[in-house]
Design a protein that fits this description.
heterodimer; A: 315 residues; alpha/beta; 4-stranded antiparallel sheet; 15 strands; globular; B: 242 residues; mainly alpha; 9 helices; elongated
């Protein structure tokens, strides 16, 4: 069995009295696309900094590609490609100069450098604009270039801090395909942090991070069952805010909200949706149709956060 | 290890120069070159007319390149942090020291270029008119100042600016402190020149000795500052992560 690409043991980081990373144990298998899912302020960026050796842990430790983050930061960074939340591009340099800079930093031979940069720029349709200064580029194009920059030296581990946040849908799809190919064909490990459960659902494994704590981890399929939530979509008319509050006051209802002419209710698994429907009818609303849909990772994720699970869930 | 450090530092220096092609000024480099050369010529004419000593005039010529170098080194280090390009750079395999050394090389070579630009028109004018630095028959003093004193003094300003950028929380603060330091160096040099004249200066031998002592002292201080800088450079400090 190959060694894990990322392994943390009780990794902790505090800033003053605030615990930003709270005794995290992670085990990211080599060659996997691994997602760290959490809302803003969950500690995702701090986790990335700790893993890259850019900030020392307060206690605990972590190993990336077999190297200790406390002592082998240089070795880790030599084998890792990174896209942080800010693209970190030099606006006064052209696209090709930005990539050349990092290719030189990674000591790519001159011949390989030129070919690699051309291939990367052509892949994301940026080749024709290679001599343009980045200052005039859109956020999407900058983001694409930042991702190419992280790939320029063919890293064994790619860490992406919210990689698709600035991309349009088409480029998101392209990037996801690339990341999967990188992991499954080239054997690289990809670690993604994200706020979007739909993006995390495309990963092989996910860890849910909230307020510095690891709340759950497992495959998307196994995590989708954590919330034990089912979504009931009631189409009709006469849905009011009072009705939403009334429905939400039930113990077996996780959440309710109105979306256009639908009342959407997320209920715990095992709850009979008939009782919810009766409640809605009794309130005077007109029901056109009722549909029960499977819960997805998004619902489970919300449920995990809202119920502030005390215990760690491992699936 | 050493060739790798040189390669990395040079990579950073080239990156800096490439960025400066598109100077962050509405006037551009052409304007700056004209300004420095005009400053040199006007100072030469004025100070020659005033019969200033052979030390004062080069100090005036050097003032602009010194201040500009102080500005550029702080913008280069502290400014990079504020433009949010630093963290990505330090997340790469680039050694911390290569990052700082590259910037020092870039600004120092650039500053020396400005220094030459700022002196040549004035020197030519004073040589032609036989006034100022050439009035007392001290051409050697001029060359001595140009090479052995002003060059390490500019390095001193750059190194101090780099250290200030490491230890200050914002680019603006670093910028002000570095300019203040460059100003202090210029004032100190002026004070020394005035003192030398008051001591009955004019003797070419004593001037040469003074310049040699000055050059050696400044170079020694440069060495100490560089050592301090290389010892204190660390990713934590560069990124200001507590």
């Amino acid at each position: 069995m190959p060694a894990p690409a990322v392994l943390t043991e009780q990794l902790t980081r505090t800033f003053g009295s605030q615990m930003v990373i709270d005794h995290i144990d992670l085990d990211v298998p080599s060659g996997a696309v691994y997602g760290v899912l959490g809302p803003m302020g969950a500690g995702k960026t701090t986790l990335v900094r700790l893993l890259l050796g850019l900030a020392p842990p307060t206690s605990g430790t972590a190993w990336l590609l077999g190297f200790d983050v406390r002592t082998d930061g240089d070795a880790i960074r030599a084998r890792t490609g990174v896209v942080l939340q800010s693209p970190g591009l030099y606006e006064n340099l052209t696209a090709i100069e930005n990539l050349e800079l990092y290719a030189r930093i990674w000591h790519l031979p001159a011949v390989d450098r030129t070919a690699r940069i051309r291939d990367l720029l052509q892949h994301l349709d940026l080749w024709t604009r290679r001599h343009e200064r980045v200052a005039g580029w859109s956020p999407t194009m900058r983001h694409k270039l930042a991702i190419l920059r992280a790939l320029v030296h063919r890293p064994a581990l790619l860490i992406l801090d919210e990689p698709t946040a600035g991309l349009d849908v088409q480029d998101q799809e392209l990037l996801r395909g690339d990341l999967n190919r990188l992991a499954h064909q080239d054997g690289a490990t990809v670690l993604i942090t994200t706020r979007d459960p739909n993006e995390a659902a495309l990963c092989d494994e996910i860890a849910v991070l909230h307020q510095g704590r690891l709340l759950a981890h497992g495959t998307p399929k196994s995590l989708a069952q954590i919330g034990n939530a089912t979504r009931v979509v009631i189409k009709g008319a006469g849905f009011t805010a009072d009705l939403v509050r009334l429905v939400e006051s039930r113990r077996d209802v996780c959440r309710a909200f109105i979306d256009r002419n639908c009342l959407i209710v997320e209920i715990s698994c095992g709850t009979a949706c008939a009782s919810i429907v009766n409640l809605v009818v009794e309130s005077g609303a007109d029901i056109e149709s009722v549909e029960q849909v499977d819960s997805g990772l998004a619902t489970a994720y919300r449920s995990i956060l809202e119920h502030s699970y005390d215990a760690k869930h491992d699936f | 290890m050493m060739p790798s450090m040189i390669f990395d530092s040079w990579t950073m220096a080239v990156k800096e120069w490439r960025e400066w092609r598109f100077v962050r000024s509405r006037f551009g480099w052409g304007f700056l070159v004209i300004l420095i050369m005009a400053w040199s010529l006007i100072a030469a004419l004025l100070l020659g007319y005033l019969e200033a000593g052979p030390l004062i005039t080069p100090i005036v010529w050097a003032a602009l390149p010194f201040v500009l170098s102080a500005v550029m080194i702080t913008d280069s280090i502290a400014g990079e942090r504020e433009r949010q390009t630093l963290e990505t750079l330090l997340a790469s395999r680039l050694p911390d020291r290569a990052f700082v050394l590259g910037k020092i090389i870039a600004v120092t070579l650039f500053g020396w270029g400005l220094l030459l630009l700022g002196m040549i028109p004035g020197l030519l004018q004073q040589a032609w008119a036989q006034v100022g630095v050439f009035a007392d028959g001290h051409p050697l003093a001029v060359v001595g100042w140009l090479v052995s004193v002003s060059a390490p003094s500019l390095v001193l300003v750059v190194l101090a600016g780099a250290l200030i950028s490491l230890y200050t929380p914002s680019a603006r603060f670093a910028f002000l402190l570095s300019i203040a330091f460059a100003g202090a160096v210029a004032l100190g040099a002026t004070g020394l020149a005035v003192w030398w004249v008051a001591q009955g200066g004019g003797n070419p031998e004593s001037l040469t000795t003074l310049l040699a002592v000055l050059a050696l002292s400044v170079t020694l201080v440069d060495g100490c500052l560089l050592g301090w800088l290389l010892l204190s450079v660390h990713r934590d400090r560069l990124l200001a992560i507590g």
